[in-house]
Write a structure and sequence with these properties.
The chain has 11 helices and 14 strands. By secondary structure, it is of the alpha/beta class. The chain folds into 2 domains: 118 residues, Rossmann fold, CATH 3.40.50; 144 residues, Dihydrodipicolinate Reductase, domain 2. Strands 8-9-10-7-11-12-13-14 form an 8-stranded mixed beta sheet, covered by helices on one side. It has a 6-stranded parallel beta sheet with strand order 3-2-1-4-5-6, sandwiched between helices. Helix 4 links the parallel strand 4 and strand 5. Helix 8 crosses helix 10.
Length: 330
């Protein structure tokens, strides 16, 4: 499978080494806003084609699938750019800035018959998938509570993608999506969300704490912040036992199951940094002629974006392209 990488930032530098670990994956092209940057990235990771614009990358005839690693605020346009060139897409999370543009991107993928998947690599982690399988057996009983937190202190607090609304700056979209997705995997769609948090002078959410309630009485407590380093743990608690996930819960190497029979440590090997597993899922789908993944369903990406819209609404945060909150959430 011939890959192109769009953008050369930190996440692209994390993704490229894992791509090299997949036997049938080949990095053939890189696109950046600067030819110099694209050439340096291509040389570092062995890509033969370097492009000084994203449009040139999207139109590279040697590329089958594009990994979009640009800031959130550019995702929607770049997805459509790749679709216009007939390319399949793995796009970094969050898929776009809001539910409206996410729905449009998904609709275009389906209309054109092209593959689209949100790069929520956590869902492909072997330990996360093992937790889902264990919960499905009923070993933990009825799941009643889920908790997760994700907090980091940015080394460069002025980095544009973290502060500029035009680029989609949002703690919720950037890291809050991990705790939210974790809760979704075990509890599904909540009946209600209540969120509070901190907002910057530019209207960007810096921190958010949310309580999600469900029809069956279950609840989830979630938090995210880019102003402090938090424990980064997670748990899933049922009537017969619980799962505890150590830091960092979103890319775990192991988890612990605690029941009345005792504690059991579960470890499932993670290849590379963990991006390999989402790459393998893209390959599996494309080889099978699928345009959507059952592991990271597009309908889930849209549902989770609606929830993040709701959370940002509670904090009073808006981003370019947001509709009127009352019209969307009412």
């Amino acid at each position: 499978m011939r890959w192109g990488i769009m953008a050369t930032g930190e996440i692209a530098h994390s993704f490229a080494p894992d791509l090299a670990l997949i036997p049938d994956a080949q990095l053939v092209a890189v696109g950046s806003r600067s030819m110099q940057t694209a050439r340096a990235f291509a040389d570092q990771y062995g890509a033969r084609n370097a492009h000084g614009s994203y449009t040139e990358l999207a139109n590279d005839p040697d590329v089958d699938v594009v990994y979009i690693a640009t800031p959130h605020g550019l995702h929607h346009d770049h997805i459509l750019m790749c679709f216009d060139a007939g390319k399949h897409v793995l796009c970094e999370k969050a898929l776009t800035l809001n539910a409206r543009t996410t729905a449009h991107a998904i609709g275009e993928a389906r209309r054109r018959g092209l593959f689209l998947m949100e790069a929520m690599w956590m869902r492909c982690n072997p330990n996360i998938r093992a937790m889902q399988e264990l919960v499905a057996t009923g070993e933990l009983g009825d799941i009643q509570a889920v908790g997760a937190d994700f907090g980091f202190l940015a080394a460069n607090a002025d980095k544009a993608r973290l502060v500029d609304p035009a680029l989609g700056a949002s703690a919720i979209l950037d890291i809050g999506i991990y705790p939210l997705t974790f809760a979704w995997l075990f509890l599904g769609q909540p009946e209600r969300i209540i969120s509070v948090g901190a907002v910057s002078e530019r209207g960007v959410d810096l921190a958010c704490a949310s309580v999600l309630s469900y029809d069956d009485g279950a609840h989830a407590t979630l938090s995210c912040t880019n102003t402090a380093v938090t424990p980064g743990h997670a748990f899933v608690a049922g009537s017969l036992g619980r799962i505890e996930v150590p830091r960092p819960f979103h890319r775990p190497d192991e988890f612990v199951v605690r029941t009345s029979d005792g504690d059991t440590v579960h470890r499932h090997p993670v290849t590379g940094r963990g991006y390999t597993h989402e790459i393998e899922e893209v390959h599996r789908c494309l080889r099978a002629g699928l345009t959507e993944s059952a592991v990271i369903p597009l309908d889930d990406s849209l549902a989770l974006m609606r929830l993040m819209d709701w959370m940002r609404s509670d904090l009073g945060c808006t981003l370019p392209g947001d509709e009127d909150w009352s019209a969307r959430l009412g």
